[in-house]
Amino acid sequence: MLVTSKTRVYTRLQGIVFTVLFLAVIGMLAWLSTRYSFTADWTANNRNTLSEASSELLQQLDGPVSITSYATEDESVRRAVRELVDRYRRHKTDLTLQFVNPDLEPETVRALGIRVNGELRVEYQARTENLQSLSEQGLTNMLQRLARSGERWLVFIEGHGERKPQGVANHDLGQWSQQLTAKGFSVQTHNLVQNPQLPENTQVLILAGPQTNLLPGEVAMINQYVTGGGNLLWLTDPSENKNQYGLMPLATQLGIDFEPGMIVDPTTQVLGVSDPRFALVADYPGHAITQGFDALTLFPQSHGLIITPPGDWQARIILQTEKRSWSETSDMSDSIQFDAAKDIPGPLTLGVALTRALSVDDTGLPQEQRIVITGDGDFLSNAYLGNGANLLLGMNMVNWLANDDQLINIPVKTATDRNLQLSSLAQGMIGFGFLFVLPLLLAGSGFLIWWKRRKR
Q1: Is 184 left (phi over 0), alpha (psi -120 to 50) or beta?
Q2: CB 296 within 8 A of CB 337
Q3: pLDDT band for position 385 (cuts 50, 70, 90)
Q4: Do residues 343 and 327 touch, judged by C-beta distance below 8 A?
Q5: CA 274: distance to chain centroid?
Q6: End-to-end CA distance of the chain
Q7: Longest dimension (CA), the chain
Q8: Stretch 39-57: mean pLDDT, rounded?
Q9: Closest among 151, 150, 135, 142 to 66, alpha carbons compared
């Protein structure tokens, strides 16, 4: 090709145009990067992105969320806060974050009770809470608590040997109560003898397995609470007391009776549970409480329920044993077999949800009274709460009873086990490789390179 002054000008113009277009493309990409973002999480279990439960909760929050982090100028602290909050801002654009140096505003810090560097103060719909632990679980739980409209009181009846909501014994409900408190519920106990009037802010009344008879006046007050539209969770247990410790009038009012004996489920022995008194539930009828359940729930020492709801009540079975189970009416012994003449064959009802339509509220929405009755209370005790999906079932029951259907079934995702367990042989081989094999390979390769260069 003949190079002339004209071709030189064309070549220079092409170079200039290419440079300008290249810089324009780079500038456009840089500008787009400030407007849009793309992230990918390749970690195990996607633990650096929000779980589906957290993103679903953010979609339910109507209105802006304001987060203030009281962090010093330490960039490592602020970066950790920013990385956590940014995961939420990708799903909720009206979630804002600002930093305040606590050293510059000591009076505000003392007034708000800020104690940790980087502590978050979250505000939603004029309700605020402080968060000290920077984690998705902590922040999601806080947003869930703030999403609740007003205080939700769970009142446990006491004074008759019931399971204690703050107790630490195996049969108590202390661990479950802690989980309820973390979800925004206020737990308190109430003795009807000392104070015959139930608290006005009672959202759910809980009867947790009394061991002595309630007085007729106490039962009358509970019946009056139910008649007035109160929500109730009744955790019954198999007992020789045919009157359910004075609560049979309540059972009659709700159309509930109890199968004699104790449920036996041979399926549990296949799973390695030697105690025949354990009942297993693997299939769940369609209900909001058990929606999406795909895990087992375990019930020790339970009895079946018989439901004949009154005309104004609707009953739904939520827990039912396997067909192989039965209610053993004889004394428990080492060798237990089904006796068709005396025992009651399965499947047996372990849990039932009752609903009744009430009048509309001030907003024009219909109100619904809700009651849950189970044939076992041990499944929520400290000893058995961690078995299968027992904890999730207990949380869903209370959420449903408190009319928080939209917050049911949102357990926070946990990171998978990141520990590497090595046998003694594997540890020895790795140590030998790093201490001897790898240095010898490096030395050998160096000697080989030196030998080849020497022969040139």
Answers
A1: left
A2: no
A3: very high
A4: yes
A5: 29
A6: 45
A7: 115
A8: 73
A9: 142
Superfamily of structural domain 45-145: Glutaredoxin (3.40.30.10)
Check: CB of residue 151 under 8 Å from CB of residue 180: no
Which residues sit opposite 328 in a β-bridge? Answer: 262
CB-count exposure of residue 122 (10 Å: 0-12, 13-18, 19+): buried
Q: How many CB atoms lie within 10 A of CB 76?
A: 8
CA dihedral angle for residue 102, residue 103, residue 107, residue 111, rounded to 10 degrees: 30
Nearest to 243 by CA among 160, 178, 352, 156: 160
Percent of residues, the chain, with pLDDT higher than 90: 42
Using pLDDT thresholds of 50, 70 and 90, give the confidence band for residue 140: confident
Q: From residue 445, how far is each of 57, 70, 448 by CA, in Å?
A: 59, 56, 5
Q: How far apart are CA 251 and CA 305, in angstroms?
A: 10
Q: What is the DSSP string of 53-92?
A: HHHHHHHH--S-EEEEEE--S-HHHHHHHHHHHHHHHTT-
CA distance 176 to 216: 30
| DSSP H or E run through 327 | strand 326-328
Q: Domain limits of the chain?
A: 45-145, 149-407
d(CA 276, CA 261): 13
Q: Strand pairing partners for 98?
A: 68
Beta strands 202-208 and 231-235: pairing type?
parallel
Amino acid at 111: A
Written out in words, the top-level CATH class of the domain with range 149-407 is alpha beta
The structure tokens 């299968």 sit at 388
Contacts of 12 (CB under 8 A, 6+ apart): none
How far, rounded to the nearest angstrom, does the alpha carbon of residue 176 sit from its chain's CA centroid?
A: 11
Residue 334: what residue type? D
* CA gap 181, 144 in Å, rounded: 12
Tracing tokens 């679903």 back to the chain, one arrives at 56
Nearest CA-CA partner of 351 in 295, 289, 269, 276: 289
> Alpha-carbon distance 251 to 154, whole Å?
21
With 0.85 as the threshold, say if the pTM is over it. Answer: no
Residue type, 145: R
Residue 414 has pLDDT above 60, yes or no: no
Which residue shows structure tokens 């399926």?
Answer: 267
Exposed, middle or buried by CB within 10 Å (0-12, 13-18, 19+), for 203?
buried
